[in-house]
Design a protein that fits this description.
Distance between the termini: 37 Å
Oligomer: single chain
CATH topology of one domain: MetI-like fold
Radius of gyration: 22 Å
CATH superfamily of one domain: MetI-like
Structural class: mainly alpha
Strand content: under 5%
Shape: globular
CATH architecture of one domain: Orthogonal Bundle
Helix content: over 70%
Order of helices and strands: HHHHHHHHHHH
């Protein structure tokens, strides 16, 4: 039975709806003119302007510091949380609580953390954003690693324990290598989320060290410029690369156990 070509119309229309704004943004980032809305010719002018903007350079450095620190925290805690939920405390209620930060509105998390920091008299700065992003991204890492755990070969862990290996040795030599693709994919996801996260950072950062999304927000108050388009295109490329890399690692990890079978 032949499929009607009309069935492909809503499919491609959905893709156009999702990605047309992104395509327009990338095209306009190569605009040679100073208008962000009319294309006057192809040029790399605004990418060169980015390199000379001190605000953007400082914001990028702060963002990388926050993303790197929060990724380490989220990867360690998320992996431990996933293993604990899958191996030691199996409960749908605990699963829901662990993944709740991933579905809560960023506004709620940001306000809650601001109130907590205020109650603890915790001075705001880059470290407060690192902790906030680490908490937020832990749920995503746990979800990715938990998915990888469902395909892990538990018989290897049982054999390791039967041969006299302790829990730590079994985890480091058996469980951790099996989870490595999922852990790396979760870390890439955490880094990407922190890289362009705005709301939580806005509520939990001080006045002296703004991250790149906050710098972009302050620039947007005076209107969209081709320089912002160029910066957004670079961030898009970084995020796209990280997502594709994480997806590939997840597929490689899924093929590993099947190949052993």
């Amino acid at each position: 039975m032949r499929r009607s070509k009309l069935l492909y119309v809503p499919f491609w229309a959905t893709y156009v709806f999702l990605y047309l704004p992104i395509v327009v943004l990338v095209v306009m980032s190569f605009n040679s003119g100073e208008s962000a809305y009319s294309f006057e010719g192809a040029s790399l002018r605004w990418y060169g302007e980015l390199a000379g903007d001190e605000r953007i350079r400082d914001g990028l450095v702060n963002t990388l510091i926050v993303a790197a620190g929060s990724t380490v925290i989220a990867t360690v805690l998320g992996t431990m949380l996933a293993v604990g939920l899958a191996r030691h405390a199996r409960s749908k209620l605990l699963d829901a609580i662990a993944l709740m930060p991933a579905v809560l509105p960023d506004l709620v998390i940001g306000i809650g953390l601001l109130v907590l920091y205020g109650a603890l008299q915790f001075t705001l700065g880059l470290y407060s954003v690192v902790l906030a992003h680490g908490m937020f991204a832990t749920a995503f890492v746990a979800a990715v690693v938990r998915t990888r755990l469902t395909g892990a070969d538990t018989s290897l862990e049982e054999a390791s324990r039967d041969l006299g290996a302790g829990p730590v040795t079994t985890f480091l030599r058996i469980t951790l290598p099996q989870l490595a693709p999922g852990i790396i994919a979760g870390a890439l996801l955490a880094f990407t989320l922190s890289l362009d996260e705005f709301v939580i950072a806005f509520f939990t950062i001080g006045n002296d060290d703004p991250t790149l999304p906050i710098v972009i927000y302050s620039m947007l108050r005076f209107g969209v410029t081709p320089e912002i388009n160029a910066l957004a295109a670079i961030l898009l490329l970084v995020s796209f690369t990280a997502v594709i890399a994480g997806q590939r690692l997840t597929k490689i990890g899924e093929r590993g156990p099947r190949a052993q079978d």
